[in-house]
Design brief:
Length: 385
């Protein structure tokens, strides 16, 4: 069968990559383009008292210094969660609304506060040093268990107790019955640390706007061109999708990290229209680590029930998931799958798993103990690199 499923597919792209002829965002340039450099928050939690951009705006070759006030004045939107627990039949949660450029309060280290557009990247970096941000530093926390303690600083004032959403799956009654007849119960605490992809090609983007056709073109190191177009059209610019074209040439690694829309992509598209010229952004590795989406940061307490022959009878665990200051794109999906795949490939008759604010205790030895508690997932106030 010449074209049947399972036939080998010969790679065609290798000669181009091996000879250095790949085309990444950093390799693309457009006539009259400006270069963007962002000012990132150095604080996990702070109120912005004022932003003084006057000195930077006076530097020759600086086209614009834009802030959250400019974003709001142009009536642009926010980056909202694509899916939440309630969209999958779960309880209603708190939906964050993330402005690509924050106006009044930063909620994690690396939040975008302002952007400088200049004739060269070096000039934009120099001008960014001339922008002064007056912060009132507020209490912040980095760990999920600290975020849920009484009196902890709220990430969002209207998200009570820093609660984001709750997910539960399984049959708790069947698990309780298995515990009642258990010969042995093994308990274990597991922690998956926070991480990010650190792709060989950092994220980057280049946007242009044609005032004649009122069409936008975005070149981006993205894994999701159609999703990016949809979000930019409906959530950010409030224009038909037909007016936006998203192009991904070669993408030097993604691993899921480049699957969602980032503030920089939304901002360069807007900035290209605002300054009347293409705008390009290529980050340093440090800037990429500040801004790239992160994963894991999960603490699970698990209980496995066995009979006298060592056969699995039931599994129960509660997991604390740090979803960060904002729910990013499909950020609820990894938590959903951590519940759905809890039993992995084993035949376990009864399973009850819960995404909870924090495990009720830490276990490192085998014993028989009390029933685990159920509660909510909590975000933290800070994002660390």
């Amino acid at each position: 069968m010449r074209f049947g499923i399972g036939q080998p597919v010969t790679r065609k792209e290798d000669p181009r990559f091996l000879t250095g002829r790949g085309r990444y965002v950093a390799d693309l340039d457009l006539a009259r383009q400006g270069h963007a450099v962002f000012i990132f928050s150095a604080h996990a939690h702070a109120r912005i008292r004022a932003i003084d951009k006057s000195a930077a705006e006076q530097i020759p070759g600086v086209f614009a210094v834009l802030t959250g006030e400019d974003w709001a004045a142009d009536g642009l939107g926010t980056l909202d969660p694509e899916v939440m627990a309630e969209d999958m039949g779960g309880p209603k949660g708190y939906r964050t609304k993330r402005p690509p450029l924050v106006r009044d309060r930063v909620r994690y280290v690396g939040e975008r506060v302002a952007v400088v557009i200049a004739a060269t990247e070096a000039l934009a970096r120099d001008a960014a040093e001339a922008v002064s941000v007056d912060y009132e530093v507020l209490p912040g926390v980095a760990r999920a268990e600290d975020a849920v303690r009484p009196g902890a600083a709220l990430v969002h004032d209207d998200a009570a107790d820093n609660t984001s959403f709750t997910m539960r799956m399984g049959n708790a009654d069947a698990v309780d019955a298995a515990f009642a007849r258990a010969y042995h119960v093994t308990r274990l605490s597991l922690y998956n640390n926070r991480l990010t992809a650190v792709t060989m090609e950092p994220r980057g983007c280049l946007a242009e706007y044609d005032p004649g056709t009122r069409r936008y073109t975005l070149y981006s190191s993205t894994q999701n061109v159609h999703g990016a177009r949809q979000i930019l059209a409906h959530q950010i610019l409030h224009v038909p999708e037909s007016r936006i074209r998203v192009v991904a040439r070669d993408v030097g690694g993604g691993f899921g990290m480049k699957g969602n829309v980032y503030p920089e992509e939304a901002i360069v598209v807007w900035a290209a229209r605002r300054v009347g010229r293409p705008v390009k952004w290529i980050p340093s590795r440090s800037e990429a680590l500040l801004g790239d989406y992160q994963g894991r940061d999960q603490h699970v307490n698990a209980e496995l029930v066995l009979d006298a022959d060592g056969k699995f009878l039931a599994l129960r665990w509660t997991g604390s998931h740090n979803v960060g200051a904002y729910i990013e794109g499909a950020g609820a999906i990894p938590i959903l799958f951590s519940l759905k795949l809890a039993s992995t490939v084993y035949d376990i008759p009864a399973v009850a798993v819960t995404a909870a604010p924090r495990p009720s205790t830490s276990w490192s030895a085998s014993s028989i103990g009390r029933r685990a508690r159920c509660a909510s997932i909590r975000p933290s106030c800070a994002r660390r690199t």
